[in-house]
Design goal:
Layout: H1 6-9, E1 18-20, E2 26-27, E3 34-36, E4 45-49, E5 54-62, H2 68-81, E6 85-89, E7 92-94, E8 97-108, E9 111-122, E10 125-134, H3 135-150, E11 153-154
Antiparallel strand pairs: 1-5, 2-11, 3-4, 4-5, 5-10, 6-8, 7-8, 8-9, 9-10
C-alpha cells in the first residue's frame, strides 16, 4: 500500500488556528468497504479502504470566532499556496448542516493524489472530514465517501 506523505494530511484545518478538543461530540461510520482503525490515542475517527484511500473525521475548537466564509477563504488560500489545484466544489452536509467542501489534486512522482475536505461549524466547533488517496482509486470510492459524510451526526 502506498503511504501518503505529510503533505496530504498536513493540510487540514489544524494549521489555521484551530486546536483539537479532548472529547468528540460527533458520530461517524466508515464509508462502505472501508475499515475503521486507530494508530494512536485520538478523538479522530479514521478508516481506510483496501486500496489505500484514507478517511478521517475530526472535531476542532475555534480559538477565535470566525465566519464560515473566513474559513473557506483561509483554506482555499492555504491549499493554493501549497500547490494544490482545486478540482471541484462539493455540496455535502455534516450533521444536517450545509458544509463547505472541495476536492483538490496534487501531482507527485507517481501521478497524482486527490484530497477531499468538507467542514461545518456548530457552535464554537468546526467539524472537518478529509479523504485522500491516489486519483484513480479515489474516484472509485468517492460516492461511498460522500454517503458516509452525509450520515455523520453531531451531538
Amino acid at each position: 500500500m502506498k503511504k501518503l506523505g505529510y503533505g496530504v494530511w498536513g493540510m487540514g484545518y489544524g494549521v489555521i488556528l484551530l486546536i483539537l478538543i479532548s472529547c468528540a461530540s460527533f458520530k461517524a461510520a466508515a464509508p462502505e468497504n472501508f475499515a475503521e482503525y486507530s494508530d494512536s490515542p485520538s478523538d479522530k475517527f479514521k478508516a481506510v479502504s483496501s486500496d489505500g484511500i484514507l478517511y478521517r473525521v475530526s472535531e476542532y475548537e475555534q480559538k477565535a470566532e470566525a465566519s464560515i466564509d473566513f474559513w473557506r477563504e483561509a483554506f482555499l488560500l492555504k491549499m493554493k499556496n501549497a500547490n494544490y489545484k482545486q478540482e471541484d466544489s462539493i455540496n455535502v452536509s455534516i450533521g444536517g448542516k450545509a458544509a463547505i467542501g472541495y476536492v483538490f489534486s496534487f501531482a507527485n512522482s507517481t501521478g497524482s493524489d486527490l484530497y477531499l475536505v468538507a467542514a461545518v461549524q456548530s457552535d464554537k466547533k468546526m467539524f472537518v472530514v478529509e479523504a485522500a488517496g491516489e486519483s484513480a482509486k479515489f474516484e472509485n470510492r468517492k460516492k461511498d465517501i460522500l454517503d458516509a459524510i452525509d450520515k455523520i451526526t453531531i451531538d
